Known about the structure:
By secondary structure, this protein is an alpha/beta fold. It has a single domain, classed as NAD(P)-binding Rossmann-like Domain (Rossmann fold, 3-Layer(aba) Sandwich). About 40% of the residues lie in helices and about 15% in strands. It contains nine helices and seven strands, in the order βαβαβαβααβαβααβα. A seven-stranded parallel β-sheet has the order 3-2-1-4-5-6-7, sandwiched between helices. Helix 1 crosses helix 8 and helix 4 runs parallel beside helix 5. The chain is globular, with a radius of gyration of 19 Å. The two termini are about 15 Å apart.
Amino acid sequence: MNRDYRSMTQDTLFIRSRKPFPDRFAGKVAIVTGGSTGIGKSIAEELCREGARVSFTGRTASTGQETEEEFRKAGYDVMFIQGDMIKEEFCQEIVDRTVKKWGKINYLVNNAFRFIDKGRDATEEDWYNVLFTGPVAYARMIQKCAPHMKKQGGGAVVNISSVSAHIAQPDRWTYNSAKGAVHMLTKCAAIDLAPDNIRVNDVSPGTIWTRETLRGVWEASPDAREAFFKELNRRQMMQRCGEPVETAGAVLYLLSDDASFTTGHELMVDGGYINMGPQGIKETALIQDAESKK
Length: 294
C-alpha cells in the first residue's frame, strides 16, 4: 500500500480496525497492565467492545484518566488504576481493587514493560527497572490473579513478549534479555497452572506503531518522516509495520474459548519478520515499489 508519509499525522497513521464478536466476553472481568496507551490501550478497548469489564493501569495519571474518560464516553465499564508495576504493593492493589469493584477476575494481560534498551553501558538500575517492571511484575500479577481465576473455574493469561526475545539486536542487552525471560515464564506458568484450568500464553509483536516506535517522528521534517517510515516498512516481510489493533486481535483470541486447548504457546504478530533471513524480502518487490512511484 502506497501512502503519503510526508503529510501523515498522528490522526491519519492508523487506518485498521477489527469487527468485534458481540458479547464474547460479556460478564467477564479483565486486567490489562499498561492499558493507557499503545498496544495495551487497544487490547483494553477491544475487550470492552466485546463485553468485558476492564481494569487497566498506567504510570501517568493524566494519560490514564484521559483514556478512562474516553472509554466511559463510549459506554465501557472500566477502571483506571495509577501506579508503577515495579512495586509489589501496587500489583496487589490492582488485584484487590478489581475484585472489590467487580467481584472476580477472569483474564490477565501483562503488557506494561519499561522500554530500556541498553547494551554494555547498562547500569544496575537499568537492569533492575527492566526486570522488575517486566518479567518479575508479570510473575507477580500471575501469582496474585491465579487464586481468583481458580475460584471462577479457570481463566486465561496473555503475556506480551516481543520478537526481540528471539533475536540479537545492537545495544539491547536489557530489553531483549527481559523479553526472553517473559517467554520462558509463560511456559513455566502454563505447566503449573494447567491443573487449575488457567491457560497462559504469550503474544510477540514485531514493529508496531506505538509511542515508543514513533518517538520524535512528528517533530521531524517531512523528508525525514518519509525516510523513517519507508526504511522501517522496507524491513518487514509485508512491507509495512503493524498497528496496535492487530496485536489486540491476537490477544483476544488467546483469552477466548476459541483457544481453549492452547496453553504455553507463543503467537507471533510480526508480519512474518521473524521468519526472514539476511536477504530480507525479494528484490523484485522493492523494484516494483520503486517503479510504482515514478
